[in-house]
Structure formats: C-alpha cells, structure tokens
Amino acid sequence: MKIYIGADYKGFEAKKRLLAYLQEHGYDVVDVGSYQGTEENDFNDPAIAAALAIRGSKVSVGIFGILICDSAHGMTMQANRFKGIRAAHCDSVESAKLAREHDDANVLCLSAHFMNEKTMEKIAEAFINTKFEALERRLKRINRLDERKDYD
Prior knowledge:
Number of helices: 6
Distance between the termini: 40 Å
Largest sheet: 5 strands, parallel
CATH superfamily: Sugar-phosphate isomerase, RpiB/LacA/LacB
Helix content: 40-55%
Number of domains: 1
Strand content: 15-25%
Radius of gyration: 15 Å
Shape: globular
Order of helices and strands: EHEHEHEHEHH
Oligomer: single chain
CATH class: Alpha Beta
CATH topology: Ribose 5-phosphate Isomerase B, Chain: A
Strand order of the largest sheet: 2-1-3-5-4
C-alpha cells in the first residue's frame, strides 16, 4: 500500500503529524508537498502531485491520496479534475467508509480547520482500511464519472 499525502499552508502542520502517524503504523507514505507552511503554498500543487502519482501508478489497488487544506474543498475540487481520481471530502469515519465502500474513492480530503489530529487519524484509518464493494450498480456509476460529455 502506498499513500501520497499533501497539504497547503493551512494544512501543513496537520500533514506533518498525520504523515508521522501513518509511518509509525507501517504505511508507505510519500510527501508530495507543500514543504513549508507559508501562504504562497496553495492547495493546487499538492493536489495535482497526488493525483498524477496515483494515475501514474502501475497498480490501482492500495494506492491512495490524503490531502489536507483549510476546508478540504479546494483540495477536493482540484484533485477531482483528473480522470480516474475520485476525491472525497470526509468529515467522519462513517463518511470515509461510505466513500470507499460505495464510490471507490482513492483520495481522502480532510479539513485542517474543522478537525483535530485524532479525528484525522481515525478517518484516515477508516478510509485506508475499507474495501470497495464492487456491486454492478456501483461500478456503473463510477465508470460514468470519467465519461466525456458536453453538457449545456
């Protein structure tokens, strides 16, 4: 299992703590930035780096991203711009489990503003350790996410 973790300047400290927690628990974690907690480090670059790393992986199972910003909204929006990325902003263990079970989410987005360290740890563990339930109706929905259609 490999986890790409990133944050903007508002999530920088939370990212450092969650990264250490995940490594202590045996996960292979790659820090994709930002590498400083300064204002010029917006959510875009870490979200793009995580999305591209996940898409570029030769395996699709056991590869996740965890992105942290102030609200988790910017990270979620940026990551979801990439085909094959299913980023979910989760604010509870239950929402993390549902994102994995029902939607095969591969990127977890967390809010540094609304969550404490322990909550992030619990949500991350639930997300990482929950399996996708590949029912036909769920696969059909997920496959439609990457369809190219012109909506007016």
